[in-house]
Amino acid sequence: MQLLYRGAEANIYLGEYLGRKCIIKERVSKRYRIPELDQELREYRTRREARILYRLLLAGLHVPAVYHIDINNYTLYIEYIEGEKVADFLDKEPTKAKDIGKEIGRVLAKVHFLHIVHNDFTTANMVLAGSKLYVLDWGMAADSTRLEDKAYDILVFKKAARSRHWQVFEDLWQGFLEGYSEYSQAKEVLEVAEKLEKMGRYFER
Q1: Answer CATH for 84-204 from 2.40.128.20, 2.30.40.10, 3.40.50.300, 1.10.510.10
Q2: pLDDT in tens, 159-171
Q3: What is the pLDDT of residues 74-117, one digit of tens each?
């Protein structure tokens, strides 16, 4: 088992499950929490992530499958997706930015239709495997019908895209808006996102 990343909430390993390469995600204890609350939170978040991934798979979205839940150790064994990070692909293929943006928008439209929010929706958490765009790292995801929560996903994507892909941002963003418009509540969510963005600029002054 190889440690890939040590995070605030979880340690991520590369390993195997029943002979298949997989990602092992172990939620870690927090010393500042009351032990009973710590266990309760880790169990809840482990179950929630697995349940959300299952719902997304059932809906036909390209996300990793959960192979196994070790609830006693707050650990998920998740499918390893072989592919290229979307962030790296855009660096090499800048002319594809609008097409990629459109597909990203379509994916988020489907996620929001299910009343799920990702909460860390950036190209760093997306992988191209053949012609399929996979969204990874659903550890912060949650169920939500609130327009503000869905707008937050959009603002996180926009801010990260403008910073990481500034050279192709306009094409990427226009493509995203085209794809996201397939969501029935797209207009309302985008209006809320615009208001929140303006408020953010105001408070940054």
Answers
A1: 1.10.510.10
A2: 999 999 999 999 9
A3: 999 999 999 999 999 999 999 999 999 999 999 999 999 999 99
Evaluated on CA atoms 118, 6, 48, 17, the torsion sign reads positive
Burial (0-12, 13-18, 19+ Cβ within 10 Å), 201: exposed
For residue 31, what pLDDT is reported?
Answer: 81
Cα separation, 6 vs 154, in Å, equals 27
* Residue 105 identity (one-letter amino acid): G
- Do 64 and 81 form a contact (C-beta atoms < 8 A)? yes
* pTM score, whole prediction: 0.92
Q: Identify whether the C-beta of residue 81 lies closer than 8 Å to the C-beta of residue 127.
A: yes
Q: How many helices (H) and strands (E) does the chain have?
A: 6, 10
Instruction: Give 94's DSSP letter.
Output: G
Residues recognised as catalytic: 120
Domain ranges of the chain: 2-79, 84-204
Q: What is the Cα–Cα distance from 74 to 51, expressed in whole angstroms?
A: 14
CB 198 within 8 A of CB 151: no
**Quick one: which of 160, 70, 74, 170 has its CA closest to 118?**
160
Which amino acid appears at position 34 of this protein?
A: I
Give the number of residues written for the chain. 205
